[in-house]
Specification:
The complex is a heterodimer of chains A (about 400) and B (about 325). Helix content of chain A is about 35%, strand content about 25%. Chain A is α+β, with helices and mostly antiparallel strands and about 400 residues long. The radius of gyration of chain A is 23 Å and the shape is globular. Chain B is α/β, with parallel strands linked by helices and about 325 residues long. Chain B contains 11 helices and 12 strands. In chain B, α2 packs across α6 and α7 packs parallel to α10. Classes of the chains: A alpha+beta (about 400), B alpha/beta (about 325). At the A-B interface, α2 and β4 of A face α3 and α4 of B.
């Protein structure tokens, strides 16, 4: 058993070497996992594969639950303590996309390899790495492949587990493929939704909005960009995608705008939302179009402080490995931990690029540093060095 | 054994062999050594993935394979570097048995693998498979490990696991259905039971491999089937459905060259085993046409299906294997 944070820091290079020795297993897992399509709500086959990997590694209770999460538990010596490590199974790619992955000497290329197949591969390989290192934790290590995370999934898998789980979780670690150095200790406030504009086929085109749904959506966008946003607390409106119409010469009867509002302040978030609702009401009434607002995902601002021992030790582990930590809030898995009042961090595993595109890639060599970092943080939590009373 | 009986008893689906642990135990009980040979020529895009998957899953996790070898015809890209980087043994075909010279063709690599590799069974897998998976190897090996009388296991592809009562056409690619199956129907009707005679994935016992000749080009698979059939009959064959195989599609003109090579080999082997009494004098030039503006011009391609004699007849091989000269 590793004693003291100093010894963990001293052992990081050994952890890196051990991870490097599992290169073929890690890459094979990456290829086999990544080539199974896993759009949000359609992750079951990918989750089952990782579960099988857990079983083959001898993990207890390799199982799934009613919302499609997959689990493997590496039992610790003290069965009362639990650390939860999560990686989301779903990707933004539909099952119709060619999921073929290419393995090059220094990179792996293919849809979803960075977000988030490499993390799933790391979880599937982690028992083997810990075994090579001869490490046995005090805490149970719950490895979780969470379903329904992205978009309309709204972290349903992880939220379901945290709500219904009977095992007390002392800390959580969320694993994301990129970028190595990412350290997320909290969530910003967030609202994610869709504005849909529908005009009737029998619309009176002599009235306002003669070009139909797209012009109406455009009018809403004009109002949105006029909403005053302060520099501090940081607040932004992200217009993610727009969709509408069917051809060149047919007036669009339906258009949809997908957006996210993010803010470090809950008050500002509520304020922006009010502006948005006002803008929609005005445009709707002026145009006569049917405009609906559907906010289907919310995140509460929160998280641990940067002085929290989990944040401090995560930073020192990264620095010891030559990785410069970059603090960045997020609205991903960590938000569910925030809601559950469980200290958690998100770590990036490697370098990569072209994220969420077909030629998405990760670099192979930095992954081993990323895994060493993960092992270091898990040991720090396990040793009790990340508990707030320290 | 009639064809239906053979199809019933010697045709397998890879999913039947999911228990690789059990397969490894059985392999070890029999004291078998197994080699994987991947013949390559400019395959840098797919070779890394193949080596990673096979090494991780079938050497490190389950020790089914004792060696993974890439035998290369002289790639101009980074095929060998990538393969070596992920742990394969890499060989240049020209450097194996250099005293007998070098011939260009995939069959040459397959033949030289018999000399270079140590396995009692050699499994050959092409390097251009995009959706590579361990089943491409264990699905071919399992019938040899579980059924001692089977000598040669061939892959076929794309039979869905869930089937309805509707009759579905099942078969090979264009060259198989237009050329090889009609030829087999005419001269070797039993061999038509091999669903994809031209598939590049097969596993074979050394005693069989070392005793048959190897065309170095397009005809190697056809030649194997005729020779093994002639020596051992249908009971020596097995075939395994390996699911879906995603690979590059060849243009029709290239299929013409392939067919030309296969036809040469077929006629030679049919004569050698006595099915054709007289071997006709063959012209080795394939003539294809192309249009340049409003003119047509003929392209002449010389395709000469050379053959390597059985490895057992090569003195260096006999010496290496400790066989009497």
């Amino acid at each position: 058993m590793v004693k003291g944070i100093g010894q963990i820091l001293a052992e990081l290079q050994r952890f890196r070497d051990a991870a490097g020795k599992t290169k073929e297993s890690l890459l094979a897992n990456l290829v086999m996992i990544g080539e199974i399509p896993a759009p949000t709500f359609g992750e079951s086959e990918r989750v089952r594969f990782v579960q099988d990997r857990f079983s083959e590694s001898g993990l207890q209770n390799s199982s799934s639950d009613e919302v499609g999460n997959g689990f493997g538990i590496l039992p610790g010596k003290d069965r009362a303590k639990n650390i939860l490590v999560v990686a989301h199974a779903d990707t933004v790619f539909s099952e119709k996309v060619d999921h073929t992955i290419t393995v090059e000497t220094e990179r792996v290329v293919g849809p979803g390899v960075a977000d988030n197949s490499i993390s799933l591969a790391a979880l599937a390989t982690l028992p083997m790495i810990l075994d090579h290192l001869g490490l046995e934790l005090d805490s149970n290590l719950i490895l979780m492949v969470n379903s329904r995370s992205l978009g309309r999934g709204n972290l349903e898998g992880l939220r379901f587990f945290l709500k219904n789980n009977q095992m007390p979780i002392r800390a959580g670690v969320c694993v994301e493929g990129v970028e190595l150095g990412r350290l997320t200790i909290g969530s910003f406030g967030m609202l994610r939704g869709e504005i849909t504009c529908q005009v009737s086929d029998q619309y009176d085109w002599t009235r306002f909005g003669t070009s139909g749904a797209i012009v109406t959506i455009n009018e809403i966008i004009n109002r949105l960009v006029e909403i005053p946003l302060p520099r501090r607390p940081k607040t932004s409106i992200v217009l993610g995608s727009i969709e509408g119409g069917t051809s060149f010469n047919t007036v669009a009867t339906r258009a949809t705008l997908r957006f996210e509002i993010r803010s470090e302040s809950e008050e500002l978030l509520a304020d922006v939302r009010q502006h948005l609702e006002d803008a929609i009401a005005e445009v709707s009434s002026a145009s006569g179009a049917d405009v609906t607002l559907d906010i289907f995902a919310r995140r509460k601002k929160g998280g641990i402080l940067s002085s929290h021992p989990l944040a401090r030790h995560s930073r020192s582990i990264m620095k010891e490995l030559g990785v410069e930590p970059r603090l960045s809030p997020s609205a991903s898995e960590i938000s569910a931990f925030v809601d559950g009042d469980i200290p958690a961090v998100t770590l990036g595993l490697t370098e990569g690029g072209q994220i969420r595109q077909l030629k998405e890639f990760i670099r192979i060599d930095p992954v081993f540093t990323g895994i060493a970092q993960l092992v270091g943080v898990l040991l720090a939590i396990d040793g009790g060095y990340c508990d707030e009373h320290e | 054994m009639n064809m239906n009986e053979w199809l019933h008893s010697n045709t397998f689906h890879f999913s039947k062999f999911w228990d690789i642990k059990h397969l490894v135990r059985e392999k070890e009980k029999q004291g078998l050594k197994i080699s994987l040979c991947i013949p390559t020529l400019n395959e840098e895009k797919t070779i890394g993935k193949e080596v990673v998957i096979f090494k991780s899953e079938l050497m490190d996790r389950y020790p089914l394979l004792d060696e993974i070898a890439v035998i290369d015809s002289g790639s101009k890209d980074r095929t060998l570097e990538v393969a070596a980087n992920f742990g394969a043994d890499v060989y240049l075909s020209a450097e194996i048995l250099p005293e007998i010279g070098e011939k260009k063709g995939k069959g040459e690599n397959l033949w030289k693998a018999i000399y270079q590799l140590d396995g009692d069974i050699i499994v050959y897998v092409d390097a251009d498979i995009k959706n590579i998976h361990p089943r491409f190897v264990y699905g071919l090996l399992a019938p040899l490990i579980y059924r001692p009388e089977i000598q040669y296991v061939k892959a076929f592809y794309d039979r869905p696991l869930a089937v309805s009562d509707v009759i579905r056409p099942s078969g090979g690619g264009r060259v198989t259905e237009i050329l090889v199956r009609p030829l087999f129907s005419l001269f070797f009707p039993e061999l038509t039971a091999i669903i994809q005679p031209l598939s590049g994935e097969y596993a074979v016992r050394r005693e069989v491999l070392e005793a048959i000749s190897f065309p170095i080009g397009y005809g190697v698979e056809t030649s194997h089937l005729i020779d093994v059939y002639h020596r051992c009959g249908m009971q020596a064959f097995g075939q395994t459905d390996l699911g879906r195989r995603v690979h590059r599609n060849q243009p029709t003109r290239d299929l013409g060259k392939m067919s030309f090579g296969i036809l040469q080999t077929f006629l030679q082997r049919a004569h050698a085993v006595g099915v054709l009494q007289e071997a006709p004098q063959l012209n080795m030039i394939l003539r294809q046409f192309q249009a340049v503006e409003d003119e047509y011009e003929q392209i002449e391609i010389e395709i000469h299906e050379e053959e390597r004699r059985p490895m057992i007849d090569i003195p260096a091989y006999r010496a290496k294997r400790g066989l009497s000269s």
